[in-house]
Amino acid sequence: MTETQTRKADHLRICLDRNVQFNEVTNGLERYRFIHACLPELNYDEIDISTNFLQKKMGAPLLISSMTGGTEEAGKINYRLAEVAQYYKIAMGVGSQRVAVENPQVGKTFAVRSIAPDILLFANLGAVQLNYKYGVEQCLRVIDLLEANALILHLNPLQECVQTKGDTNFRGLLEKIAILCKKLPVPVIAKEVGNGISAAMAQKLIDVGVAAIDVAGAGGTSWAKVESERATDAQQRRLGATFADWGMPTAECVETIRAIAPNIPLIASGGLRNGLETAKAIALGADIAGMAWPFLQAAAESEEALHALVKVLIAEITTVLFCTGNATLSDLKNSGALQKLPIS
């Protein structure tokens, strides 16, 4: 097993077996509450939670966020996730495909298109790899491997700082991202990994041609804690512990980015755990919502657990629409039904 494969296996094991969630920082969505409509004047059965994202029709505003790949166990999880994504017509991202570039034999652990021919599917590479001999060729390879609809470039400076021998040269990446946005045949999505994207940084990414933003804010899995668990020396373990709660809450990222970029396709992720939080994120301005940890837990258990998870997420989102008097997600966004609670 290569060093990258070992790291992938460690990430999967740690996320499943250890408490690597943020200690104190939340996703911020608890600061918001919907106005209840006691008489919604709707038929629950006619509520429509379908949506379009990057010109693709989705059955619900849900993304199975990027998680894994590169090992046999990861491949099994990706295939289970893809089957459920296809069934409910929701989007899916895979984990970083750097391991498949280094070792093409593990590409099959990512290649889920045959199982999910109709879904919105995202390839994934670390943006920092553009400073480590990656370019258009490698991006095309991971896009082709998945037959992907878009490429996620994930941004993870804190994780690379805590990771033993992490890649920490982030200089000049905006210019290189601009080149990819011009040359690649699919849209580029910029995504953090759990520490958030500010409005100012989102504007810079949009200015160089990024087609969508996934805020991946604070409040869920802390990759500083994950890397701290993996660390082999005391300094890296301490770094991970010190920065375990670093980042901007997801709600803050969504609200501030939408304020400066009204039309950018926007994904809310980072600590979302249910359909109520999904609906809050959409009412704040997100187009769809991504979750990783809940899907990983369910996928590791069984296909039945995955189906049960998606069913309840759909029921929760639908219930929010019904109990706020909104027939569609667009209606919810424009309803003003979400209130920010006063700080106590």
UniProtKB/TrEMBL annotation:
InterPro entries: Aldolase_TIM (IPR013785), FMN-dep_DH (IPR000262), IPdP_isomerase (IPR011179). Its EC number is 5.3.3.2. One of its GO terms (cellular component) is cytoplasm. Its cofactor is Mg(2+); FMN; NADPH. Mg(2+) binds at residue 160. Gene3D superfamilies: Aldolase class I. SUPFAM superfamilies: FMN-linked oxidoreductases (SSF51395). GO terms for biological process: isoprenoid biosynthetic process. FMN binds at residues 65-68, 96, 124, 191, 221, 271-273, 292-293. Substrate binds at residues 7-8, 96-98, 159. The keyword Magnesium applies. It is found in: Cytoplasm. It catalyses: isopentenyl diphosphate = dimethylallyl diphosphate. Belongs to the IPP isomerase type 2 family. Homooctamer. Dimer of tetramers. This is Isopentenyl-diphosphate delta-isomerase. The gene is fni.
